[in-house]
Amino acid sequence: MTVINYYIIPFSLLFISGLVVYSLNYKHFLVMLLSLEVVVVSVFLLIFFFCSGFSLEVFLSIIYLALSVCEGALGLSLLVLIIRTYGSDSLFTFDLLW
């Protein structure tokens, strides 16, 4: 096994665990946002180690990181809007969105 394969296994486990939490624990909006951020961070780390392992430019990972920060800010603003409107972040309290 090469050095790259040692990096793929933990990041793929982190990615899969983030997807499992996202799909099974959908009671609160904050938990869903945090599990999506775990998925985004695992993909970022995989891209970064892949690019640095093959001596490629890591500029792609910086662009991905900037877009993921924008996605996190959008998610937090939606969380604040939902909490101010409905009083909690429980997904079962507001049926109008589904």
What key phrases describe this protein's structure?
single chain; mainly alpha; about 100 residues
Walk me through the structure:
- The protein has 98 residues and is mainly alpha-helical.
- It has three helices and no strands.
- The mean pLDDT is 82.
Topology:
Blueprint: H1 3-24, H2 29-53, H3 59-86
Mass-distribution shape: elongated
Order of helices and strands: HHH
Radius of gyration: 17 Å
Number of helices: 3
Total beta-strand segments: 0
**Coarse structural class:** mainly alpha
Largest sheet: none
Identify low-pLDDT runs. none
The helicity comes to: over 70%
What's the rounded overall pLDDT mean? 82
* Percentage of residues in DSSP E strands: under 5%
Whole-Å distance between the termini? 47 Å
Quick overview of this protein structure:
This protein is an all-alpha fold and 98 residues long. Helix content is 77%, strand content 0%. It has three helices and no strands.
